[in-house]
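Notes from the 1:1 (GR / supervisor)

We went over the backlog. Supervisor wanted to see one worked example end to end before approving the batch request, so GR pasted a single chain during the call. The sequence is below; no edits were made to it. Supervisor asked that the structure be written out right there so they could see what the output format looks like.
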Amino acid sequence: MLRLGDVEIDVPFVQAALSGYSDLPMRRIARRLGAPYALNEVILDKTINQRGKKRREILRVPADDHPVGGQLMGSDPDDFAPAAAAMAEAGYDVIDINFGCPVRKVLGRCRGGFLLSQPSVALEIVRRVYDAVGRARPVTVKMRRGMDDSADSERNFFEILDGVFEIGAAAVTVHGRSVSQRYVGPADWGFLTRVKRHVGDRIVFGSGDLFSAEACMRMMSETGVDGVTIARGCIGNPWIFAECRALWASQPLPPPPSVAEQGRVIAEHFAELIEVHGPRLAGRLIRKFGIKYSEHHPHARAVRDAFIAVSTPEKFQGIQDRWYDAQVSWPPVQRRAGHGDLVAAGAT
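Structure output shown during the call:
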């Protein structure tokens, strides 16, 4: 059991804040399949501070979406406190601050990972947020291991790390890649080991290269981090949370999801998209999720191509009827050794 303030997390496997993905439908599906805690997709502080439809959508926190973290990103400390207060008042259980996004557009606007090069600004942001909501909500921080591999970058990282815990942060998530790495090359799990040893009993979540339940368990065992935050590895693969729960309980790894099970979950996800976003937008949104779900199908390439062409509920139903018919004897799904991606023998 992990505790972030008053928030209890019964198993240490978190669904990350995923820009463009981790909306309410994705979080609901992840919870049904075992995620104990999920974060909303990263939100600009200015979006919360301005009136409009997007603000109203973000500040809608249904009763079944708990515990949920709201992740904020921006560049001006003055904008963070009111945004954090609004999210806390709306019902977000945790306020998370993003110092990790490596996207060039974000860096060019002095947001996300750029702030790892500005310790004084980063810590002022954390201080403002903690002063605004810290008595009512746990505050957490997402970081990468630095801007690059330089000694100055590492010093900045540890200055921020020490500072956020001194201010009162409940936990820090550390991604094992640098900002300049973006998503290229392996994550440095050895750095996570150093971070955990440095902070002692304070809570650290690790992130990076977590595409299977086995990898999640291995990261915890090898680095000593208290939990893991699963990002790209859970897009189109919500079953990873059930698998993590099984391994955490010293139970056998569940079999990979059958085609019928895949179809059931995808249909539930689409129904959630319709409820939250309406049928027209849902028909387009399911495309990006379906592309990732297709990786589990015995005919992955053909199913992927079918999802690329989806734009309406009718076309989505056509995919369900053609590729997820429970009456068809589909080839068995198998796992690739060492990575956790699901494939079938002879998959196209």
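Supervisor's comment: Residues 94 and 137 are 6 Å apart (CA to CA).
Batch request approved.
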